[in-house]
Request: fold
Amino acid sequence: MVDPGSPDQIPEPGDDDQALLRFLAQFGIAPDAAGQLDPDQLMEQMQSMLAAFNTQLAGFGAADAASGMNWGFTHDLIRRATAAAGPDPAPTPAQQARIRDAVALADLWLDEAISFDRLSSQPMAWRRADWVEHTFNTWQQLIRPVITQLSVALQTLGGEDQPTGVEPMMRLAVASMFGAQVSQTLSTLATSVLSGSDISLPITDEARVTLLPVNVEAFAEGLTSDIDDLLLFLAIREAARQRLFAAVAWLGPQLLALIEHYAREITIDPDALTQAVEGQLANVLSAADLEKAGDAVAHSLFAPQQTAEQKEVLARLETLLALVEGWVDEVTAQVTEPRMPAAAPLTEMLRRRRASGGPAETALRNLVGLELRPRRTRDAANLWAATRTARGVAGRDSVWAHPDLVPDAAALDDPLGFANPDQHQSGTDELDEELARLLDEEGGSGNR
Reply:
């Protein structure tokens, strides 16, 4: 900032000064007629605002010691944004009964097709608000590494020549904007997920088959399939996926650990973040503007190129997610093909939804900078179908017993070799021909 003196001795503010003045103006702090900021007045206003905001935050509990994030406040933002996203009525008794019936039939069919036991928990019909409550702890776990990196970057915002007290205000502004981005992302996700594990990750606080009637009914609009067929189809997929996560103890923790590992490797450029904050705050005049600013700042966080380690983690995560969804696809096809004529169009509909970028892809990109696209789900489904033909249901599902047994990307290139390596090495025989026929019926190996 300029040194005190008479007005005719004060130079015109430079770009850096103008950016700081715009930042302070968002909080009602402006220079006097001579273009000066009164240091005492500045400190008094800043301390007053910080005290007021800290008092407000205290009502939501203490900030997280590791990241500095007030998760209670963020949780409240998400709840408010979800409530503002549209009607979220409690499931009616009729809706609850239809979901219980659909899950009961799904479990009956799955008992014949998979080795994993039914869940002991009762199926549930959830509101969007319920989904938020039952998944928030997992999102907190996944986002925390990014917030920690953000806190480190904020320590250097603005340089050493800024007035005392500006840095806490800057931190407060960025935290508010990122909190707005988190709330917008998760509230949008809450309006699109169809079930508890729809994003292919075990994000609920317990293994339970859950469907969201308000979202399912919105999704069913424009479909030719009957709503009961759609509910049954989704119940089969959700029950299969939740049984898998419940029975395979290492699977869920490893999926989440890979995402956290990726997030910990994010590098945030303090200069780029400063420019993004200053550029966005000049236009913040409303809550909607704050949300847009948060989106821009979040994108600036994840601008740096992926590290070699992040690329390796991403490849492992995409393969593992493809194996999960491929297994669910294979199991669903196994139980529905002889029983549900509506299954084929519903399967194709879900494939198109997956190809266009599912809800998990959007959420992870916005929150942890992870461009996730498990491209080889169809290859994985072919591999699991071939393994079942060669080894039976128990042999297929036993592959999940240990991480070292699970197929890697190379195995997806050679599903016949993985399904029966001894026979495959000895050359083509009747079993190979049968497996090849099966793969042709499953639709061949594509990207999805």
Observations:
- The longest strand covers residues 124-125.
- The radius of gyration is 26 Å.
- Residues 376-448 form one domain.
